[in-house]
Inverse folding.
Protein backbone atom coordinates (compact mmCIF):
# COMPACT_ATOMS: atom_id res chain seq x y z
CA UNK A 1 0.00 0.00 0.00
CA UNK A 2 1.23 3.50 -0.83
CA UNK A 3 2.45 5.34 2.24
CA UNK A 4 3.01 9.06 2.60
CA UNK A 5 6.65 8.92 1.49
CA UNK A 6 5.71 6.96 -1.67
CA UNK A 7 2.92 9.40 -2.42
CA UNK A 8 5.14 12.43 -1.87
CA UNK A 9 7.77 11.16 -4.28
CA UNK A 10 5.22 10.07 -6.91
CA UNK A 11 3.35 13.36 -6.87
CA UNK A 12 6.63 15.25 -6.68
CA UNK A 13 7.76 13.54 -9.87
CA UNK A 14 4.44 14.24 -11.59
CA UNK A 15 4.45 17.90 -10.63
CA UNK A 16 8.10 18.24 -11.66
CA UNK A 17 7.49 16.82 -15.11
CA UNK A 18 3.95 18.07 -15.85
CA UNK A 19 3.02 20.62 -13.15
CA UNK A 20 3.12 23.54 -15.56
CA UNK A 21 1.28 21.84 -18.43
CA UNK A 22 -2.42 21.96 -19.24
CA UNK A 23 -2.47 18.17 -18.88
CA UNK A 24 -1.58 18.25 -15.20
CA UNK A 25 -5.13 18.14 -13.80
CA UNK A 26 -6.05 15.14 -15.96
CA UNK A 27 -2.87 13.29 -15.08
CA UNK A 28 -3.23 14.07 -11.38
CA UNK A 29 -6.81 12.75 -11.35
CA UNK A 30 -5.67 9.60 -13.11
CA UNK A 31 -2.75 9.17 -10.72
CA UNK A 32 -5.01 9.34 -7.66
CA UNK A 33 -7.41 6.80 -9.15
CA UNK A 34 -4.60 4.51 -10.27
CA UNK A 35 -3.05 4.57 -6.78
CA UNK A 36 -6.42 3.75 -5.21
CA UNK A 37 -6.98 0.81 -7.55
CA UNK A 38 -3.43 -0.37 -7.00
CA UNK A 39 -3.91 -0.15 -3.22
CA UNK A 40 -7.08 -2.21 -3.64
CA UNK A 41 -5.20 -4.86 -5.64
CA UNK A 42 -7.09 -4.10 -8.82
CA UNK A 43 -5.42 -4.13 -12.25
CA UNK A 44 -4.76 -0.86 -14.07
CA UNK A 45 -6.38 -1.23 -17.46
CA UNK A 46 -6.21 0.83 -20.61
CA UNK A 47 -8.10 3.77 -19.16
CA UNK A 48 -4.83 5.22 -17.82
CA UNK A 49 -2.15 7.24 -19.56
CA UNK A 50 1.06 5.20 -19.88
CA UNK A 51 2.87 7.94 -17.99
CA UNK A 52 0.55 7.37 -15.00
CA UNK A 53 0.96 3.60 -15.12
CA UNK A 54 4.73 4.06 -15.26
CA UNK A 55 4.66 6.43 -12.26
CA UNK A 56 2.52 4.08 -10.20
CA UNK A 57 4.65 1.06 -11.03
CA UNK A 58 7.86 2.97 -10.28
CA UNK A 59 6.73 4.21 -6.87
CA UNK A 60 4.61 1.25 -5.84
CA UNK A 61 6.02 -0.11 -2.56
CA UNK A 62 7.02 -3.75 -2.52
CA UNK B 1 -18.22 -11.72 -5.99
CA UNK B 2 -19.65 -8.69 -7.80
CA UNK B 3 -22.80 -7.17 -6.44
CA UNK B 4 -26.03 -7.07 -8.36
CA UNK B 5 -26.66 -3.73 -10.06
CA UNK B 6 -30.04 -2.25 -9.17
CA UNK B 7 -29.99 0.49 -11.80
CA UNK B 8 -27.58 2.58 -13.89
CA UNK B 9 -27.70 6.38 -13.86
CA UNK B 10 -26.66 8.14 -17.06
CA UNK B 11 -25.63 11.78 -16.77
CA UNK B 12 -24.06 14.42 -19.00
CA UNK B 13 -20.41 15.04 -18.15
CA UNK B 14 -18.89 18.44 -17.48
CA UNK B 15 -19.66 19.69 -20.99
CA UNK B 16 -22.20 18.85 -23.69
CA UNK B 17 -19.41 17.20 -25.70
CA UNK B 18 -18.07 15.13 -22.79
CA UNK B 19 -18.89 11.42 -22.71
CA UNK B 20 -22.00 10.39 -20.79
CA UNK B 21 -21.17 9.22 -17.29
CA UNK B 22 -22.70 5.83 -16.44
CA UNK B 23 -23.01 5.11 -12.73
CA UNK B 24 -24.00 1.61 -11.62
CA UNK B 25 -25.90 1.60 -8.33
CA UNK B 26 -25.53 -1.68 -6.43
CA UNK B 27 -28.67 -3.31 -5.14
CA UNK B 28 -27.69 -3.01 -1.48
CA UNK B 29 -27.20 0.76 -1.64
CA UNK B 30 -30.19 1.62 -3.82
CA UNK B 31 -32.38 4.12 -2.02
CA UNK B 32 -34.90 6.71 -3.00
CA UNK B 33 -34.38 9.48 -5.56
CA UNK B 34 -33.32 12.72 -3.87
CA UNK B 35 -33.35 12.62 -0.09
CA UNK B 36 -35.57 11.01 2.57
CA UNK B 37 -37.87 13.67 3.95
CA UNK B 38 -41.15 14.10 5.76
CA UNK B 39 -43.05 16.73 3.82
CA UNK B 40 -45.27 17.86 6.69
CA UNK B 41 -42.23 18.36 8.93
CA UNK B 42 -40.34 20.34 6.27
CA UNK B 43 -43.47 22.47 5.83
CA UNK B 44 -43.92 22.95 9.58
CA UNK B 45 -40.35 24.07 10.26
CA UNK B 46 -40.31 26.29 7.20
CA UNK B 47 -43.53 27.99 8.33
CA UNK B 48 -42.93 28.27 12.07
CA UNK B 49 -39.13 28.37 12.25
CA UNK B 50 -37.88 29.75 8.92
CA UNK B 51 -34.20 29.39 8.21
CA UNK B 52 -31.90 32.38 8.44
CA UNK B 53 -28.54 32.91 6.79
CA UNK B 54 -25.47 32.21 8.88
CA UNK B 55 -24.26 35.64 7.84
CA UNK B 56 -26.91 36.99 10.22
CA UNK B 57 -27.41 34.19 12.76
CA UNK B 58 -23.70 33.55 13.15
CA UNK B 59 -22.45 37.08 12.51
CA UNK B 60 -20.33 37.11 15.69
CA UNK B 61 -18.10 34.27 14.54
CA UNK B 62 -17.99 35.56 10.97
CA UNK B 63 -16.34 38.68 12.29
CA UNK B 64 -14.16 36.74 14.74
CA UNK B 65 -12.86 34.42 12.05
CA UNK B 66 -10.82 37.27 10.54
CA UNK B 67 -8.89 37.45 13.83
CA UNK B 68 -7.59 33.87 13.51
CA UNK B 69 -6.61 33.89 9.84
CA UNK B 70 -2.93 33.64 9.04
CA UNK B 71 -1.56 36.91 7.61
CA UNK B 72 -1.48 35.28 4.17
CA UNK B 73 -5.14 34.18 4.33
CA UNK B 74 -6.15 37.57 5.73
CA UNK B 75 -4.44 39.39 2.89
CA UNK B 76 -5.95 37.09 0.26
CA UNK B 77 -9.44 37.35 1.77
CA UNK B 78 -9.24 41.13 1.65
CA UNK B 79 -8.25 41.03 -2.02
CA UNK B 80 -11.02 38.54 -2.76
CA UNK B 81 -13.68 40.60 -0.97
CA UNK B 82 -12.66 43.66 -2.96
CA UNK B 83 -12.71 41.80 -6.28
CA UNK B 84 -15.94 39.92 -5.58
CA UNK B 85 -18.07 42.67 -4.02
CA UNK B 86 -19.15 44.39 -7.26
CA UNK B 87 -20.53 41.11 -8.65
CA UNK B 88 -22.39 40.27 -5.44
CA UNK B 89 -23.87 43.79 -5.41
CA UNK B 90 -24.83 43.47 -9.07
CA UNK B 91 -26.54 40.13 -8.40
CA UNK B 92 -28.59 41.64 -5.57
CA UNK B 93 -30.53 43.90 -7.96
CA UNK B 94 -30.92 41.53 -10.92
CA UNK B 95 -34.50 40.71 -9.94
CA UNK B 96 -35.50 44.28 -10.79
CA UNK B 97 -34.07 44.27 -14.32
CA UNK B 98 -36.59 44.02 -17.13
CA UNK B 99 -36.08 41.64 -20.07
CA UNK B 100 -34.60 43.24 -23.16
CA UNK B 101 -37.08 41.76 -25.69
CA UNK B 102 -40.54 40.25 -25.84
CA UNK B 103 -40.73 36.64 -24.57
CA UNK B 104 -39.78 34.01 -27.14
CA UNK B 105 -42.89 32.17 -25.95
CA UNK B 106 -41.47 28.65 -25.85
CA UNK B 107 -39.71 26.37 -23.39
CA UNK B 108 -36.21 27.81 -22.81
CA UNK B 109 -34.70 24.88 -20.88
CA UNK B 110 -32.37 23.65 -23.62
CA UNK B 111 -31.32 27.18 -24.60
CA UNK B 112 -30.32 27.87 -21.01
CA UNK B 113 -28.59 24.50 -20.62
CA UNK B 114 -26.47 25.08 -23.73
CA UNK B 115 -25.59 28.61 -22.66
CA UNK B 116 -24.66 27.48 -19.13
CA UNK B 117 -22.19 24.92 -20.47
CA UNK B 118 -20.90 27.44 -22.99
CA UNK B 119 -20.18 29.86 -20.14
CA UNK B 120 -18.17 27.18 -18.38
CA UNK B 121 -20.51 25.69 -15.81
CA UNK B 122 -19.89 21.99 -15.27
CA UNK B 123 -23.46 21.00 -14.56
CA UNK B 124 -26.90 22.58 -14.84
CA UNK B 125 -30.35 21.46 -13.77
CA UNK B 126 -33.85 22.82 -13.42
CA UNK B 127 -36.41 22.67 -10.64
CA UNK B 128 -38.99 24.72 -8.79
CA UNK B 129 -37.47 27.34 -6.48
CA UNK B 130 -38.41 25.88 -3.12
CA UNK B 131 -39.45 28.74 -0.87
CA UNK B 132 -39.59 26.45 2.14
CA UNK B 133 -35.82 26.87 2.37
CA UNK B 134 -35.72 30.64 1.78
CA UNK B 135 -34.02 32.59 4.56
CA UNK B 136 -36.30 34.86 6.60
CA UNK B 137 -34.29 37.90 5.51
CA UNK B 138 -34.67 36.96 1.83
CA UNK B 139 -38.36 36.10 1.66
CA UNK B 140 -39.30 39.49 0.20
CA UNK B 141 -36.26 39.56 -2.06
CA UNK B 142 -36.56 36.20 -3.83
CA UNK B 143 -38.60 36.36 -7.03
CA UNK B 144 -39.77 33.90 -9.68
CA UNK B 145 -40.68 30.24 -9.49
CA UNK B 146 -38.24 28.51 -11.82
CA UNK B 147 -34.76 27.68 -10.52
CA UNK B 148 -31.77 27.24 -12.83
CA UNK B 149 -29.21 25.39 -10.71
CA UNK B 150 -25.62 25.83 -11.86
CA UNK B 151 -22.46 24.19 -10.53
CA UNK B 152 -18.93 25.37 -11.23
CA UNK B 153 -16.15 22.88 -10.64
CA UNK B 154 -13.19 24.15 -8.65
CA UNK B 155 -9.64 23.27 -9.56
CA UNK B 156 -8.84 19.61 -8.91
CA UNK B 157 -5.17 19.93 -8.01
CA UNK B 158 -5.69 22.85 -5.64
CA UNK B 159 -8.58 21.07 -3.96
CA UNK B 160 -6.43 18.04 -3.19
CA UNK B 161 -4.06 20.29 -1.23
CA UNK B 162 -6.71 21.05 1.41
CA UNK B 163 -6.27 22.55 3.94
CA UNK B 164 -3.98 25.18 2.42
CA UNK B 165 -3.83 28.71 1.13
CA UNK B 166 -3.60 27.16 -2.34
CA UNK B 167 -6.97 25.50 -1.80
CA UNK B 168 -8.43 28.79 -0.60
CA UNK B 169 -7.42 30.29 -3.94
CA UNK B 170 -9.54 27.59 -5.59
CA UNK B 171 -12.43 28.06 -3.15
CA UNK B 172 -12.75 31.84 -3.42
CA UNK B 173 -11.48 32.14 -6.98
CA UNK B 174 -14.26 29.81 -8.12
CA UNK B 175 -16.82 32.08 -6.46
CA UNK B 176 -15.44 35.11 -8.30
CA UNK B 177 -15.74 33.32 -11.63
CA UNK B 178 -19.15 31.89 -10.80
CA UNK B 179 -20.65 35.27 -9.90
CA UNK B 180 -19.60 36.68 -13.28
CA UNK B 181 -20.92 33.64 -15.14
CA UNK B 182 -24.26 33.85 -13.31
CA UNK B 183 -24.68 37.50 -14.30
CA UNK B 184 -23.95 36.53 -17.92
CA UNK B 185 -26.45 33.66 -17.81
CA UNK B 186 -29.09 35.98 -16.36
CA UNK B 187 -28.43 38.43 -19.21
CA UNK B 188 -28.99 35.55 -21.63
CA UNK B 189 -32.34 34.65 -20.02
CA UNK B 190 -33.40 38.29 -20.33
CA UNK B 191 -32.40 38.23 -24.00
CA UNK B 192 -35.05 35.51 -24.40
CA UNK B 193 -37.63 37.85 -22.95
CA UNK B 194 -37.84 36.66 -19.34
CA UNK B 195 -36.80 37.93 -15.93
CA UNK B 196 -33.78 36.42 -14.21
CA UNK B 197 -32.59 36.89 -10.63
CA UNK B 198 -29.10 35.80 -9.59
CA UNK B 199 -28.90 34.17 -6.16
CA UNK B 200 -25.19 34.70 -5.57
CA UNK B 201 -23.28 31.96 -3.74
CA UNK B 202 -21.96 34.76 -1.52
CA UNK B 203 -25.37 36.20 -0.68
CA UNK B 204 -27.48 33.04 -0.61
CA UNK B 205 -31.23 33.34 -0.51
CA UNK B 206 -31.40 29.81 0.92
CA UNK B 207 -29.36 26.66 1.24
CA UNK B 208 -29.00 25.61 -2.41
CA UNK B 209 -28.35 21.89 -2.02
CA UNK B 210 -32.01 20.81 -1.58
CA UNK B 211 -32.82 22.27 -4.98
CA UNK B 212 -29.78 20.73 -6.65
CA UNK B 213 -30.86 17.35 -5.26
CA UNK B 214 -34.40 17.93 -6.50
CA UNK B 215 -32.95 18.75 -9.94
CA UNK B 216 -31.17 15.38 -9.99
CA UNK B 217 -27.69 16.92 -9.93
CA UNK B 218 -26.46 14.74 -7.09
CA UNK B 219 -27.35 13.72 -3.57
CA UNK B 220 -26.46 15.03 -0.13
CA UNK B 221 -23.29 13.40 1.15
CA UNK B 222 -22.51 12.59 4.77
CA UNK B 223 -20.11 15.55 4.64
CA UNK B 224 -23.05 17.91 4.11
CA UNK B 225 -22.01 18.63 0.53
CA UNK B 226 -23.67 17.90 -2.79
CA UNK B 227 -22.03 14.81 -4.27
CA UNK B 228 -22.41 15.30 -7.98
CA UNK B 229 -21.73 12.64 -10.62
CA UNK B 230 -19.18 14.72 -12.51
CA UNK B 231 -17.06 16.22 -9.73
CA UNK B 232 -18.31 15.01 -6.38
CA UNK B 233 -18.32 17.85 -3.88
CA UNK B 234 -15.66 19.82 -5.76
CA UNK B 235 -18.11 22.45 -6.94
CA UNK B 236 -19.53 25.81 -5.99
CA UNK B 237 -23.26 26.22 -6.39
CA UNK B 238 -25.51 29.08 -7.44
CA UNK B 239 -29.10 29.56 -8.54
CA UNK B 240 -30.80 31.84 -11.03
CA UNK B 241 -34.56 32.14 -10.75
CA UNK B 242 -36.74 33.06 -13.69
CA UNK B 243 -40.31 33.41 -14.85
CA UNK B 244 -39.38 31.81 -18.16
CA UNK B 245 -40.93 28.45 -19.11
CA UNK B 246 -38.71 25.58 -17.96
CA UNK B 247 -39.00 21.80 -17.91
CA UNK B 248 -38.05 20.62 -14.47
CA UNK B 249 -35.67 17.72 -13.87
CA UNK B 250 -36.40 14.94 -11.42
CA UNK B 251 -34.41 13.79 -8.38
CA UNK B 252 -32.15 10.79 -8.94
CA UNK B 253 -30.95 7.92 -6.77
CA UNK B 254 -27.18 7.67 -7.16
CA UNK B 255 -26.96 5.33 -4.14
CA UNK B 256 -25.24 8.04 -2.12
CA UNK B 257 -27.43 7.83 1.00
CA UNK B 258 -26.45 4.26 1.83
CA UNK B 259 -22.99 4.40 0.26
CA UNK B 260 -21.99 7.23 2.57
CA UNK B 261 -23.12 5.27 5.63
CA UNK B 262 -20.78 2.47 4.62
CA UNK B 263 -17.95 4.91 3.94
CA UNK B 264 -17.98 7.74 6.51
CA UNK B 265 -14.37 8.61 5.74
CA UNK B 266 -15.36 12.29 6.06
CA UNK B 267 -16.68 11.71 9.59
CA UNK B 268 -13.68 9.61 10.57
CA UNK B 269 -11.15 12.10 9.21
CA UNK B 270 -12.78 15.38 10.31
CA UNK B 271 -10.15 17.09 12.48
CA UNK B 272 -12.94 18.75 14.47
CA UNK B 273 -15.05 15.58 14.92
CA UNK B 274 -17.92 17.69 13.59
CA UNK B 275 -19.80 15.18 11.40
CA UNK B 276 -22.32 12.85 13.01
CA UNK B 277 -21.82 9.21 12.02
CA UNK B 278 -25.49 8.39 12.49
CA UNK B 279 -28.09 10.10 10.39
CA UNK B 280 -30.64 12.21 12.27
CA UNK B 281 -33.93 13.76 11.27
CA UNK B 282 -33.42 17.52 11.13
CA UNK B 283 -36.20 19.89 10.08
CA UNK B 284 -37.93 17.01 8.29
CA UNK B 285 -34.87 15.77 6.40
CA UNK B 286 -32.72 12.71 7.17
CA UNK B 287 -29.03 13.58 7.11
CA UNK B 288 -25.67 13.40 8.85
CA UNK B 289 -25.86 16.70 10.70
CA UNK B 290 -22.80 18.88 10.83
CA UNK B 291 -22.02 20.28 14.29
CA UNK B 292 -21.34 23.90 13.42
CA UNK B 293 -19.69 24.87 16.70
CA UNK B 294 -17.04 22.19 16.23
CA UNK B 295 -16.46 22.84 12.54
CA UNK B 296 -16.27 26.62 12.57
CA UNK B 297 -13.14 27.30 14.65
CA UNK B 298 -11.09 24.65 12.85
CA UNK B 299 -12.29 25.87 9.46
CA UNK B 300 -11.43 29.47 10.28
CA UNK B 301 -8.08 28.75 11.88
CA UNK B 302 -6.75 26.21 9.40
CA UNK B 303 -7.14 27.69 5.92
CA UNK B 304 -10.77 26.70 5.41
CA UNK B 305 -10.03 23.10 6.50
CA UNK B 306 -12.14 21.19 3.96
CA UNK B 307 -10.77 17.77 4.94
CA UNK B 308 -14.34 16.43 4.53
CA UNK B 309 -14.24 17.50 0.88
CA UNK B 310 -10.71 16.28 0.23
CA UNK B 311 -11.24 12.87 1.86
CA UNK B 312 -14.49 12.08 0.06
CA UNK B 313 -13.75 9.24 -2.40
CA UNK B 314 -16.42 10.53 -4.77
CA UNK B 315 -14.65 13.89 -4.90
CA UNK B 316 -11.19 12.36 -5.17
CA UNK B 317 -11.80 9.60 -7.72
CA UNK B 318 -15.18 10.43 -9.28
CA UNK B 319 -18.57 8.85 -8.69
CA UNK B 320 -18.36 6.43 -11.62
CA UNK B 321 -15.14 4.59 -10.62
CA UNK B 322 -16.13 4.60 -6.96
CA UNK B 323 -19.52 3.04 -7.65
CA UNK B 324 -18.03 0.59 -10.17
CA UNK B 325 -15.46 -0.48 -7.56
CA UNK B 326 -18.23 -0.93 -5.01
CA UNK B 327 -20.18 -3.14 -7.40
CA UNK B 328 -17.05 -5.19 -8.16
CA UNK B 329 -15.74 -5.59 -4.62
CA UNK B 330 -18.26 -4.31 -2.08
CA UNK B 331 -15.53 -1.97 -0.79
CA UNK B 332 -15.12 1.79 -0.63
CA UNK B 333 -12.32 2.82 -3.00
CA UNK B 334 -9.42 4.38 -1.11
CA UNK B 335 -10.83 3.82 2.37
CA UNK B 336 -8.07 3.18 4.89
CA UNK B 337 -5.29 4.43 2.59
CA UNK B 338 -2.91 7.35 3.00
CA UNK B 339 -3.79 8.49 -0.49
CA UNK B 340 -7.41 9.21 0.43
CA UNK B 341 -7.31 9.75 4.16
CA UNK B 342 -3.97 11.43 4.84
CA UNK B 343 -3.72 15.16 5.41
CA UNK B 344 -1.46 17.73 6.98
CA UNK B 345 -2.53 20.50 9.32
CA UNK B 346 -0.35 23.57 9.73
CA UNK B 347 1.82 23.36 12.84
CA UNK B 348 0.26 19.98 13.73
CA UNK B 349 1.86 17.75 11.15
CA UNK B 350 0.70 14.80 9.07
CA UNK B 351 -2.20 12.54 10.04
CA UNK B 352 -2.62 9.21 8.30
CA UNK B 353 -5.57 6.81 8.53
CA UNK B 354 -6.69 6.38 12.14
CA UNK B 355 -4.80 9.45 13.34
CA UNK B 356 -6.41 12.76 14.25
CA UNK B 357 -5.03 16.04 15.54
CA UNK B 358 -5.97 17.20 19.01
CA UNK B 359 -6.84 20.75 20.00
CA UNK B 360 -7.04 22.64 23.26
CA UNK B 361 -10.55 23.06 24.61
CA UNK B 362 -10.07 26.83 24.23
CA UNK B 363 -10.06 26.34 20.44
CA UNK B 364 -13.83 25.84 20.60
CA UNK B 365 -14.45 28.87 22.79
CA UNK B 366 -15.35 31.45 20.18
CA UNK B 367 -18.09 34.10 19.75
CA UNK B 368 -21.53 32.57 19.21
CA UNK B 369 -24.75 33.92 17.69
CA UNK B 370 -25.31 37.41 16.35
CA UNK B 371 -22.95 40.21 17.28
CA UNK B 372 -25.37 41.76 19.78
CA UNK B 373 -26.18 38.35 21.30
CA UNK B 374 -22.48 37.75 21.87
CA UNK B 375 -22.01 41.24 23.30
CA UNK B 376 -24.88 40.62 25.76
CA UNK B 377 -23.46 37.19 26.67
CA UNK B 378 -20.10 38.72 27.52
CA UNK B 379 -21.74 41.54 29.49
CA UNK B 380 -23.85 39.02 31.46
CA UNK B 381 -20.63 37.26 32.44
CA UNK B 382 -19.37 40.55 33.84
CA UNK B 383 -22.61 41.03 35.80
CA UNK B 384 -22.35 37.46 37.12
CA UNK B 385 -18.77 38.17 38.19
CA UNK B 386 -17.68 41.30 40.05
CA UNK B 387 -20.13 43.46 38.13
CA UNK B 388 -19.18 45.75 35.28
CA UNK B 389 -17.32 48.95 35.96
CA UNK B 390 -18.76 52.25 34.76
CA UNK B 391 -16.26 52.23 31.91
CA UNK B 392 -17.25 48.69 30.91
CA UNK B 393 -20.94 49.59 30.95
CA UNK B 394 -20.24 52.63 28.86
CA UNK B 395 -18.15 50.60 26.42
CA UNK B 396 -20.92 47.98 26.21
CA UNK B 397 -23.53 50.61 25.34
CA UNK B 398 -21.24 52.22 22.79
CA UNK B 399 -20.52 48.91 21.09
CA UNK B 400 -24.19 47.94 21.11
CA UNK B 401 -25.11 51.25 19.52
CA UNK B 402 -22.48 50.63 16.86
CA UNK B 403 -23.82 47.16 16.08
CA UNK B 404 -27.41 48.42 15.84
CA UNK B 405 -26.38 51.34 13.66
CA UNK B 406 -24.40 49.11 11.32
CA UNK B 407 -27.30 46.66 10.94
CA UNK B 408 -27.00 43.20 9.44
CA UNK B 409 -25.76 41.92 6.13
CA UNK B 410 -26.64 38.74 4.30
CA UNK B 411 -23.39 38.85 2.35
CA UNK B 412 -20.68 36.35 3.23
CA UNK B 413 -18.37 33.90 1.62
CA UNK B 414 -18.20 30.60 3.36
Amino acid sequence: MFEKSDLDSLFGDLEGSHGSTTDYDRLLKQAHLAIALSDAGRPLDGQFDTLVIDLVERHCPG
Amino acid sequence: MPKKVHHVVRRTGTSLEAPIIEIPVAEDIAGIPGIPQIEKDVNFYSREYPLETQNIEKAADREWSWSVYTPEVFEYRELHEKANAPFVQAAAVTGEIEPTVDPVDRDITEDVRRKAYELGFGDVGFTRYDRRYTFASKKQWAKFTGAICVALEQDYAQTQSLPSLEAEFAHFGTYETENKQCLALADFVRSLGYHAQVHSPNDNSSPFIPMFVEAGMGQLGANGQLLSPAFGSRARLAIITTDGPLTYDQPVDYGVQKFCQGCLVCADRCPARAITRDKVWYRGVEKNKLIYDRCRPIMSTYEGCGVCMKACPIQRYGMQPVMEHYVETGEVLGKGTDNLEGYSIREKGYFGPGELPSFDRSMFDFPKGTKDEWLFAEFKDKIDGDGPTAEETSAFLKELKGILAKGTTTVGDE
In short: The interface with chain B takes residues 1-4, 7, 24-25, 28-29, 32-33, 35-37, 39-40, 42 of chain A (CB under 8 Å). Residues 24-39 of chain A form the longest helix (16 residues). The CA atoms of residues 38 and 44 of chain A lie 7 Å apart.
